[in-house]
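Dear Dr. L.,

I hope this message finds you well. Following up on our conversation about the binding site, I have prepared a predicted three-dimensional model of the protein together with iron/sulfur cluster. For your records, I am including the exact sequence and ligand specification that went into the calculation, followed by the structure tokens. Please feel free to forward this to your student if that is useful.
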Amino acid sequence: MRLWMLVRPAFRRSHAVTVSRGSRTTAEKLKLFRACFTGLRDVYGTYDPGTGRVRQVKQPITDRVILRHLQGHQPYGVYLLVGERTRAVAADFDEDNPEPPLEFIRQANHYGIRAYLERSKRKGWHVWAFTELPDVAAGKARSVVKLILEDIGAPMTEVFPKQDRLAGNGRYGNFINAPLYGSLVFRGRTVFVDPGNSLKPHPDQWAVLESVQRVTERELDEIIEINGLATPKACATASSPSPETAVSRGTFGLPPCAQRMLAEGVAENQRVACFRLAVHLKKAGIPQDLAIAGLTAWAAKNHPKGTRRIITEAEIIEQTGHAYTRPYRGCGCEEPAITPYCNLSCPLKSHPRLNSMPNEKDNPSPEPNHRYRSDE
Ligand code: SF4
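The resulting structure of the complex is given below.
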């Protein structure tokens, strides 16, 4: 007996979800599914829909295995990690509250990554991001997902794959249940939903898989580089420069705008510039007190015009406090205070999707322009 047959008819009517079967052939659907949810090919995870008991199946993942999943006979869970490569990464939000996963999607968008929201089988949400084919380094994908989770204040959220690489032969990592399991689809579970349409399931799930935007390894590298994810601690301690020296050298993988602002000082919008510089220094692993010391030295280089004054130490402490006490990471690429210092050589400049992003959300004041003052 199918699971949905056990559901009361009234429940079926009120919760039924319209999901088109589409016009694609079975072969086309299998191809789309495999392009997104393939990992290890000789082992998969499954569970008993009645008891929820989980087990591992050491058998090749044939078309029949996938079809039995899609038709609701036996769930298929994918071990995403193959060696140290993956073609998908997922954040597993346990709670039903949709705000954290939606925030994740918005923040992923900020970095130029499209993420897709799946209502999981019983409770919570999976947010998926797909990589260029055949795969990318899992460690890079995981680093960027963890960055996004830190940004949104949910660093403890589980990430699949759970490791950067498999430890050796006979190790499989952890599986995650694949979407589109049989009758659950028609109950609005294990389906991709539309954040722009009240979280309703997309009417054509196959169209979602067909049109996924995949993040490339190069794009992951750029995000990792610009956010100092690779070696933040090593940079911060390598040669133990004084904060003033470190800041004025423009080291620590700072983007060109930050390097130039630090080297030349700024003529206006010093508080905003100070805030952005503090965000960069935080990302580079510089302790807050050293950042304040460095930015105080930097302020002496500023050259405000006319009767305007140089930013005070109290203002530097305030802006640095904003940067260090909340999960800001954006570069402020579209802010009037920053754009004069932008450089075409910056990796973010050549990131087409990032450049089309709306202005970032992470201003410390509710109205971004409130940070711009006429006296400095
Ligand atoms: S794109 Fe321009 S403003 Fe943005 S981080 Fe790079 S140099 Fe700075």
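In brief: Residues 1-15, 231-251, 352-370 have pLDDT under 50 and may be disordered.

With kind regards,
A. P.
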